[in-house]
Amino acid sequence: MSTPIPIILPFQPQSGLSNFMPVRRSLCRALAVAVACSAAPLLTLAQQALQIKALAERKVSELPAGELFWHIETVESAQDARAAAGAWSLVVEAAGKAWQFTLGPSGTSASPGATKVAEVGPIRRVSASRYLLRINEASGAPGSVTSIHSHPGSEAFFVLTGEQSIRSATGTLRVRPGQAEGGQGADRAMQVSSSGTTDLLALVMFVVDADRPFSSPATLP
User: Fold this and answer.
1) DSSP class of residue 112?
2) By three-state DSSP, how is residue 29 classified?
3) Distance between CA 186 and CA 151 in Å, rounded?
4) How far is Cα 138 from Cα 203, in angstroms, rounded to an integer?
5) Burial group, residue 112, by CB count within 10 angstroms (0-12, 13-18, 19+)
6) Is 37 helix (H, G, I), strand (E, B) or coil?
7) Other C-beta atoms within 10 Å of 150: how many?
8) Using the 8-state DSSP alphabet, how is residue 16 labeled?
9) pLDDT tens digits along 131-159
């Protein structure tokens, strides 16, 4: 009797399952692409640095007596205002206007030919042999942020557009367009960000120890 020859038939998967596997792989790829695309803007946003530019500064040997306030004014001519500026005044150009910032007591009237915009203070005093008065411009898209840092003196904020947030150990200060707010005193850690829905443009006023580094790395809880 001859030996039967086995016949091996290839496995044929069920048609429903074989049709599903390519669809499943396509869905997985699409989901992975969607997650990556949605995360990319957040990663880019988190990596943006707030742009800081020094507009004007001067060193002085003493500060005005009594409580200190920054007086913010607009002027017709930056050149004329600089020529007439006193020892504690700084003149800058920003957002298409000329601005004068003067450190002094509360309640003073506007400078000749100037329009008073805001008064902010009292500003925390710092003890030093020399003082640096400076005006910085802070700008950036929503989500832009500085590193955590501190200054050897006080600062104050005046927002033109957007919203500025100042995070510190005691909480977060939010400054909106047209508002002016005093900040912390010397050597207090902070992190500043553009926290609104539109680009930030702010003018920042400083009174710091002129003989110490203007900014130092710091930490927050």
Assistant:
1) T
2) helix
3) 6
4) 6
5) exposed
6) helix
7) 19
8) H
9) 999 999 999 999 999 999 999 999 999 99
